[in-house]
Amino acid sequence: MSYFKTINKIAYEGPLSKNPYAFKFYNPDEKIGNRTMEEFLRFGVAYWHTFTEDLSDPFGLGTAIRPWDNYTGMDLAKARVEAAFEFFEKLGVPYFCFHDVDIAPEGSTLRESNQNLDTIVALIKDYMKDSKTKLLWNTVNNFTHPRFVHGAASSNNADVFAYSAAKVKKGLEIGKELGAENYVFWGGREGYESLLNTDMKLELDNLGRFFHMAVDYAKEIGFDGQFLIEPKPKEPTTHQYDFDVASGYAFLQHYDLHEQFKFNIEANHATLAGHTFEHELRYARVNGMLGSVDANQGHPLLGWDTDEFPSDLYTTTLAMYEIIKNGGLGRGGLNFDAKVRRGSFTPEDLFHAHIAGMDSFAVGLKVAQRLIDDKVFDNFIEDRYSSFKEGIGLDIVENKADFRQLEAHALGLTEIKHTSGRLELIKATINQYLLTIYAE
């Protein structure tokens, strides 16, 4: 059965194409550096937003119209698998991602839930035999059900801790069976509403214990996927323990987990934390912790997780600059943790949204590579920090200076000369490079 009968395989037609079902900038076979766009960008479809999202929001019911809506229960889960692989094939993406409850409904018991998962995982595995699309990462939903009202691994209830562990155990087994390249931990409720009733140390210690158990079990079953933590500052809790990359990295170091984990960084989560997307990517990169990316964007007028498809070329360019400087994403990828707007409710809108997101990051990749090749930022930065290349600056960098030496230097200064940061020139240069893409 075809769920997208009117849509053919999406092809690259170039920037002048008027075809809404064609890529204008994403050419999977085009080489950027020594890799094709497909190899470098490693796009992935988010199963939850694309096939299970009904477009409801805190103020209204769902509006999505989907060709599988007439099914229920396990029949619905099976229909979504069929639709998903047709979508993957027509969009030409190399990867997809999912939570456990995205692909199979929860049963009345954990045992029944696992049986439902086994049925759908077997179906997915069968479809993957004839598909180029692989599993970028999987995870489990330890946040939606009321049992997680006080958290999962950080819950005050030991039974919930155990239940959460059992779900992750199953998730790791599924990851191994389907050949997942990564496994993601998103602590949707790993945080607190108020410190007045919270034992923070116990919760953090238990969270550390939980991650160590996951590492140990992955080794036991031979699952070699990369472990990723996805930071988010708030929503649904008042304060989540994986607030941003910096706090997450401190947590991993404290609990001796920094060798086993990297970060899956989401653009919208960065802005919720009061950071830019590129800040989070840079912080992870310079600490060797950049693993994968949830590609989306927030809305500047809304203070919550809107998960819009990325279309801001300035942001995608600066993001790809960090990713290229990182040497790529390794086993990670660019997963579209993004949903169409509530008013974009047709199946066709799913294709329009993904095409827009893939084109936006393709532009970002091309522009960022040229900025790097021309050493645009490197030259600005090298000039700005030139005082650390010689004299007292070089002594500081090489750890040869102490306070006495620095005092002697400072006492001999008659004036301090600054160089301009030239931020406006830099931004104008980025604009010039972006617009050059259209001039070609």
Rounded radius of gyration (Å): 24 Å
Percent of residues in beta strands?
A: 5-15%
Total strands: 14
Low-confidence stretches: none
Question: Major sheet, described briefly?
Answer: 8 strands, parallel, barrel
Tell me the strand order in the biggest sheet.
5-6-7-8-10-12-13-14
Q: Percentage of helical residues?
A: 40-55%
- SSE run: EEEEHEHHEHHEHEEHEEHEHHEHEHHHHH
Annotation field: number of helices:
16
Arithmetic mean pLDDT: 96
Measured between the Cα atoms of the first and last residue, the distance is 42 Å
Structural commentary:
By secondary structure, the protein is of the alpha/beta class. It contains 16 helices and 14 strands. Helix 3 runs parallel beside helix 5 (about 110-130). It is globular, with a radius of gyration of 24 Å. The two termini are about 40 Å apart. The model has no long low-confidence stretch (mean pLDDT about 95).
Question: What topology does this entry show?
Answer:
Layout (H helix, E strand, L loop, with lengths): L10 E2 L9 E2 L7 E2 L2 E2 H5 L1 E4 H6 L20 H19 L3 E5 H4 L6 H19 L5 E6 L18 H21 L3 E4 L5 E2 L7 H22 L4 E4 L9 E2 L4 H10 L6 E6 H6 L4 H10 L3 E5 L18 H13 L8 E3 L10 H27 L2 H9 L6 H7 L5 H9 L11 H17 L1
Parallel strand pairs: 1-2, 5-6, 5-14, 6-7, 7-8, 8-10, 10-12, 12-13, 13-14
Antiparallel strand pairs: 3-4, 9-11
Helix pairs in contact: 3-5, 5-6, 6-7, 10-11, 11-12, 12-16
